């Protein structure tokens, strides 16, 4: 079986329920996941994938080709998008059967209709259920890693994101870090490759910087043993959900109704409702900017059960507006 999901860390974590559903429905098949090579450690701990086929393209696009060898796959599953490029990529391998959403430009595929306003985890489970494969969108937990955490019990603050539209301003993250540190919290600031300067800017008041991109095993251990994770809508937020670690996720321009955590008091999704923006924009989205520092601190206290931290001492606020929705969809 060949499954296409050549996207990022958060995408793969959101796809775990669908992958596990396929594993349960086809226990005798070798499941090959077409995904970026650097996600191999993640696929290994899902318990649902036998082999990774390296595949990626810039800007979340569909890869131009797949390095598939041997006979055609008995089954191909499109968990990448709604086609037609991803449909045609898989169809070119002449699989015995292709499971995918319907698209008018690929009428030979008899899948269910695509729903634009559907949560990502549920979307792919619905696709599989339409083909008779039982799928539970809540089956997303990862096992605790064996690797020791580089900062057990810390509050992890992750200011980076793939696009500027989803990056809350660094000075506001720094204000959150300062207030948490003053309140006695151990705080670490993480970042991926190329985000060293951002991490240094946010890691104030004695917070420990962990820049350059931790190996997945170390990042997973850090999140699993953290007191809480504070971030935008990016991969580390999904990792916190997978480890049931309290989290505060800042949303904008995309609603948590599409990518947010499951309903649970330990997960707080901050969102000021409004017209959705461009998730790939070159400036912080206006809805994201409506989230204030005190709102984040209040959410951290609520998620961890320790009450509001740093009240009145943050020194930075967003303009006043409607109260956000402090809950997952």
What is the global morphology?
globular
Estimated radius of gyration: 20 Å
Structural class: alpha/beta
| Share in helix | 25-40%
Please name the CATH architecture of the largest domain.
3-Layer(aba) Sandwich
What is the N-to-C succession of helices and strands? EHHEHEEHEHEHEHEHEHEHEHH
Return residue spans where pLDDT drops below 50 for at least 5 consecutive residues. 310-329
CATH topology assignment of the largest domain:
Rossmann fold
The CATH homologous superfamily of the largest domain corresponds to: Glycogen Phosphorylase B
How are strands sequenced across the largest beta sheet?
A: 8-7-6-9-10-11
The CATH top-level class label of the largest domain: Alpha Beta
Please summarize the sheet with the most strands: 6 strands, parallel
The number of helices is 12
What is the average per-residue confidence, as pLDDT, rounded to a whole number?
A: 92
Provide a quick synopsis of the model.
This protein is α/β, with parallel strands linked by helices and 329 residues long.
Description:
It is a single chain. This protein is α/β, with parallel strands linked by helices. The chain has twelve helices and eleven strands. The chain has helices at residues 9-14, 16-25, 40-46, 85-91, 120-130, 170-182, 196-202, 216-224, 235-242, 256-259, 286-289, 293-304, and strands spanning 2-4, 32-35, 51-54, 75-78, 97-99, 155-158, 187-190, 208-210, 228-232, 247-250, 267-270. The strands form two sheets. Strands 8-7-6-9-10-11 form a six-stranded parallel β-sheet, sandwiched between helices. Strands 3-2-1-4-5 form a five-stranded parallel β-sheet, sandwiched between helices. Strand 7 (187-190), helix 7 and strand 8 (208-210) form a beta-alpha-beta unit.
């Amino acid at each position: 079986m060949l499954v296409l999901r050549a996207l990022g860390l958060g995408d793969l974590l959101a796809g775990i329920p669908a992958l596990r559903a396929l594993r349960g429905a086809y226990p005798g098949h070798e499941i090959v996941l077409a995904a970026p090579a650097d996600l191999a450690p993640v696929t290994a701990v899902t318990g649902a994938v036998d082999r990774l086929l390296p595949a990626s393209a810039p800007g979340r696009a569909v890869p131009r080709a797949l390095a598939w060898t041997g006979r055609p796959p008995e089954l191909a599953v499109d968990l990448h998008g709604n086609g037609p490029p991803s449909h045609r990529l898989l169809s070119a391998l002449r699989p015995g059967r292709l499971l995918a959403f319907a698209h008018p430009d690929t009428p030979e595929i008899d899948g269910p209709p695509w729903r634009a306003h559907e949560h990502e985890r549920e979307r792919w489970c619905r696709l599989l259920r339409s083909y008779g494969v039982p799928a539970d969108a809540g089956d997303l937990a990862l096992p605790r890693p064996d690797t020791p955490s580089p900062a057990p019990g810390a509050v992890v603050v992750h200011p980076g994101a793939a696009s500027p539209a989803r990056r809350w301003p660094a000075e506001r993250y720094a204000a959150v870090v300062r207030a948490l540190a003053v309140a006695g919290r151990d705080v670490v600031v993480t970042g991926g490759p190329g985000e060293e300067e951002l991490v240094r800017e946010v890691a104030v008041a004695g917070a420990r910087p962990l820049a350059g991109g931790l190996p997945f095993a170390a990042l997973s251990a850090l999140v699993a043993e953290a007191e809480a994770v504070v971030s935008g809508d990016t991969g580390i937020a999904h990792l916190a959900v997978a480890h049931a670690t309290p989290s505060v996720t800042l949303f904008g321009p995309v609603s948590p109704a599409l990518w947010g955590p499951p309903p649970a008091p330990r997960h707080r999704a901050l969102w000021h409702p409004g017209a959705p923006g461009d998730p790939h924009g070159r400036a912080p989205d206006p809805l994201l900017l409506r989230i204030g520092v005190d709102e984040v601190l209040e959410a951290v206290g609520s998620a961890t059960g320790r009450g509001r931290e740093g009240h009145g001492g943050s020194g930075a606020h967003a303009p006043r507006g409607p109260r956000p929705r402090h809950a997952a969809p």
